[in-house]
Amino acid sequence: MTSRVLPFVVISLALTAAASAQTVSEFVPEASRLHFGRVRLNPTVALTNAGVDNNVFNASDIDEPRSDFTVTLTPKSDIWFPLGRSWVKSTIREDFVYYNEFATERSINSTYRTDVLLPMNRLTFAVGGGYENVRDRPGFEIDARSRHTGSEYHGSVELRAFGKTFIGTEAKRSHIDFESDAVFLGRSLRTELTRSTTIADVSVRHELTPVTSVVALVAREGDRFEFSPDRDSDSTRAELGVRFNARLGGSAAIGFRDFQPLDPRIPAFQGMTMRADMSIAPFGATRIGVQTGRDIQYSLEKTQPYYVETGAGFSVTQGLSGPFDAVGRIGFQRLSYRGLVGVPGLSDRTDSVDSFGGGLGYRVGRDMRIGFNVDKQQRNSDLARHSYGGVRYGTSVTYGY
How many other CB atoms are there within 10 angstroms of residue 345's CB atom? Predict the structure, then answer.
């Protein structure tokens, strides 16, 4: 239903590995829409969520859900250009979110990013950073649209050790900061969740084929909270993943995380993590997409400071007669909360978020699609004010210049 803008600090470790593992051909796509010499541009504009949201605030039934007309306009542009032996990629994105009745929910969300890739004979260097200033729901737990900023920067180097085997290392630091008036159910997001994350990793990548590679990665991660140091933690990760760039596209990985809070009252976690974002076109007019994930997320709850989020999404796009297509999608998330040690009467709980929907689309030429979509989302929790349901329906228009 409502999109979730994840803060930079919880971006998948897969992106960390991918940044140091890209080749020039992957970094600078030949399929970009506009070419000016060696400069590449991909400008797009999307009109999404143009319709009715019948539960604007994700309110429970006892809080009387409110309905409103909403629309989001998203212009975006990617640009690649050479700088000596290096390639630079910059991305600019703006989301203009409008609600007809509830002016408090209107916002402008900005995201900017720049990355530089420097390929040499046996070494490849990469540096980059990004910044976002958004007002959106930062996760499945928090139902208030909260203004927060995020910054991230990284540097990496990868060595071709053998013909098809590469060894890399990367350092990355990110920070997320909530505004002072960001509050949900009486709790300050700034006090509980403003934090910095530092990650250092070592990876080995092997190219099985020109379009398939395997990546093994070990990383050390530290989270430090600006106003709630009792939430500080260190983690060690190990991960084995695969990337595809053909008819079967995307990446997937399975790993292990040893999560050690510095406060002995917060229970440690040792367990499996996973992530996948893949698509396949088994037939000419059919495309199937799969997304899965399992990892730790920090909670706003003082007595249950984190939860293990496990989820999956599945979608099918089927071409129909002529320019028409149909889309069906379904997803689920399970939020398994872990409570403080030694608190009388406190028990762990698991919330669920389930969604399903679909739509019809009509393609106008090569670069424009008009769609009509209906999506329903339902959250169930032992806490009454964390349970809600809602439906959003409306049109979308996507256009690439």
Answer: 4
**Does 1 reside within a domain?**
no
- Looking at the domain assignment, is residue 31 inside a domain? yes
Residue 3 lies in a domain: no
Compute the distance between CA of residue 312 and CA of residue 349 in angstroms, rounded to an integer. 20
Q: Are 336 and 352 in contact (CB under 8 A)?
A: no
Structure confidence at residue 52 (pLDDT): 97
3-state secondary structure of 61: helix
- Helix, strand, coil: what percent of the chain each, to 5? 10, 65, 25
**pLDDT tens digits for range 344-367:** 878 889 999 999 999 999 999 888
pTM above 0.85, yes or no: yes
Query: What does the block give as tokens for 171?
Result: 């350092």
Q: Positive or negative, the Cα torsion across 34, 92, 97, 1? A: positive
**Interatomic CA distance for residues 183 and 191, integer angstroms:** 10
* Average of per-residue pLDDT across 329-357: 93
- 104 burial type by CB count under 10 A (0-12 exposed, 13-18 middle, 19+ buried): exposed
- The neighbour count for residue 347, using CB atoms within 10 Å, is 9
Measured at the alpha carbon of residue 140, what is the angle toward residues 136 and 141, in degrees to the nearest 5? 100
For residue 368, the domain's CATH number is 2.40.170
**Domain, as residue range, for 328:** 8-400
Judge whether 286 lies within some domain.
Answer: yes
The tally of domains found in the chain comes to 1
Secondary structure (3-state) at 104: helix
